[in-house]
Write a structure and sequence with these properties.
- Strands 7, 8, 9, 10, 11, 12, 13, 14, 15, 16 and 17 form an eleven-stranded mixed beta sheet that branches. A six-stranded parallel beta sheet has the order 3-2-1-4-5-6, sandwiched between helices.
- The protein has 14 helices and 17 strands.
- 43% of the residues are buried.
- It is 36% helix and 26% strand.
- Helix 1 packs across helix 12, helix 5 runs parallel beside helix 10 and helix 7 crosses helix 8 (176-185).
- The protein has 433 residues and is an alpha/beta fold.
- It has three domains: 4-134 and 304-324, Rossmann fold (3-Layer(aba) Sandwich); 138-300, 2-Layer Sandwich (Dihydrodipicolinate Reductase, domain 2), CATH 3.30.360; 343-427, ACT domain (Alpha-Beta Plaits, 2-Layer Sandwich).
- The radius of gyration is 24 Å and the shape is elongated.
- The structure holds L-homoserine (HSE).
- L-homoserine (HSE) binds at residues 134, 159-161, 196, 201, 301-302.
- Residues 134, 159-161, 196, 201, 301-302 line the site of L-homoserine (HSE).
Length: 433
């Protein structure tokens, strides 16, 4: 049977993995799709650069049009990254009736709807499994595996860099800056780690997960984002003392009225929660469905071969659709209009560390503020600090609305007995709560 020709945009870490998998798994791929897969052209910046894979030089080009305008190329695989420039290439590929597989979460989180529309108009597939949690087949699990269920909540450790940093800080009792440096030396963290440690990378992935999982167009701007740069060894020490583990967690939840909340923030999980044991650079997505209950998808969130596995599996999906003549029908039109929860509809527990003046009445003043907002405590620790006149109070609340909790924090800031609010983190237990 005639070979399927593909063009690749990019031959970096993921691109090299794609070439390797297509070469090493030829027999399996041939069995799945019923024809050979031929890489016809690869767009690179520099043809003479040494590569991680052996590639005949005539396959390389610095001219994207040799791929985008080649009528023999059926599928374009985009693994070069970037947003505006890359979007132009993908729009052109789709307009030329080429199916597109991309690993690009930055692009899909912002321009996913537009690209889907153009793909559907041209009868083309647009797949992007590798854009969220690298090697974990989470998008297909949400759209196909859990198609019969109503997803109520997703919690994701979807950034490997920050999970690596938090794991090391927790296990070694080390400071953030020290561990970040180690992560950069080991190649786990980028030279400019801003979008990872600031939570933006995870927010982009949560935008994609929420849009697919809730069948609702969620935008990146809807995601409330907080990163990990302010976390201290003391925060982690006291959290551990109360039985919690810190993770940078993407949380997406929906209520009975199909109102949703999507956020990314450092979050404390009970040590026995399945996500609490997802360590180092690994990723995991916990999905709670109305019928299925708890599920969890675990694996490598980045890396050459893991990410390329998702890319090539998407390619298999495209070719199977070509055989069946059903390309371009996979874009899921959102079932629900966007409805976001307001701050009085988002409920959670909170962990709070305060430094207070150790005087008569201090504790009563603090509890007075909480009781005014009808928020009670689940756990409390109080310890004297080295400077005798001050004490450390660590507490965990019962469920409170975000609105009440933010008001409580503002009132605590103004309380003369409170010297400093050291930190405040969301606490999750999973399922609906
Ligand atoms: N910078 C990302 C991470 C890579 O650390 O998880 C995968 O998107």
């Amino acid at each position: 049977m005639k070979a399927i020709s593909i063009g690749m945009l990019g031959l970096g870490t993921v691109g090299s993995g794609v070439v390797t998998i297509i070469e090493n798994h030829q027999d399996k791929l041939m069995h799945q799709v019923g024809c050979p897969i031929k890489i016809k052209k690869i767009l690179v910046n520099n043809i003479n650069k040494p590569r991680a894979v052996e590639i005949p030089q005539e396959l390389l080009t610095t001219n994207a049009n040799e791929i985008l305008e080649d009528p023999e190329i059926d599928v374009v695989i985009e693994v070069m990254g970037g947003v505006d420039h890359t979007k132009g290439y993908l729009l052109k590929a789709l307009q030329q009736k080429k199916h597109v597989v991309t690993a690009n979460k930055d692009l899909m989180a912002v321009y996913g709807t537009e690209l889907h529309t153009v793909a559907a108009e041209n009868g083309c597939d647009l797949f992007y499994e590798a854009s969220v949690a690298g090697g974990i087949p989470i998008l297909r699990s949400l759209v196909d595996g859990l198609a019969s269920d109503r997803i109520l909540k997703m919690m994701g450790i979807v950034n490997g860099t920050t999970n690596f940093i938090l794991t090391k800080m927790t296990k070694q009792g080390a400071a953030y800056a020290e561990v970040l440096k180690e992560a950069q030396e080991l190649g786990f963290a980028e030279a400019d780690p801003t979008s990872d440690v600031g939570g933006l990378d995870a927010a982009r992935k949560m935008t994609i997960l929420a849009t697919l999982g809730f069948s609702m167009k969620v935008d990146l701007d809807d995601v409330k984002v907080q990163g990990i740069t302010q976390i201290t060894e003391d925060d982690l020490k006291y959290a551990k003392q109360l039985g919690y583990t810190m993770k940078l967690l993407g949380i997406a939840s929906r209520d009975e009225d199909d109102k949703v909340e999507v956020s990314v923030q450092p979050t404390l999980l009970p040590e026995n929660h399945p996500l609490a044991s997802v360590n180092d650079e690994y990723n995991a997505v916990y999905v709670f469905g109305d019928a299925v209950g708890e599920t969890m998808f675990y694996g490598p969130g980045a890396g050459s071969l893991p990410t390329a596995t998702s890319v090539v599996s998407d390619l298999v999906g495209v070719i199977k659709n070509m055989r069946l003549g059903v390309n371009g029908r996979s874009a899921v039109t959102p079932q629900y209009p966007k409805k976001l929860k307001s701050a009085d509809e988002i409920f959670s527990k909170y962990f709070l560390r305060l430094h207070v003046y150790d005087e008569v009445g201090t504790f009563a003043d603090i509890t007075g503020i909480f009781s005014k907002h009808k928020v009670s405590f689940e756990k409390i620790l109080q310890m004297p600090l080295k400077r005798k006149e001050t004490a450390e109070i660590v507490l965990v609340t019962h469920h409170a609305s975000l609105k009440d909790y933010e008001e409580i924090l503002n009132e605590l800031k103004d309380l003369p007995a409170v010297k400093e609010i050291k930190c405040s983190y969301r606490v999750e237990r999973g399922e609906r709560g």
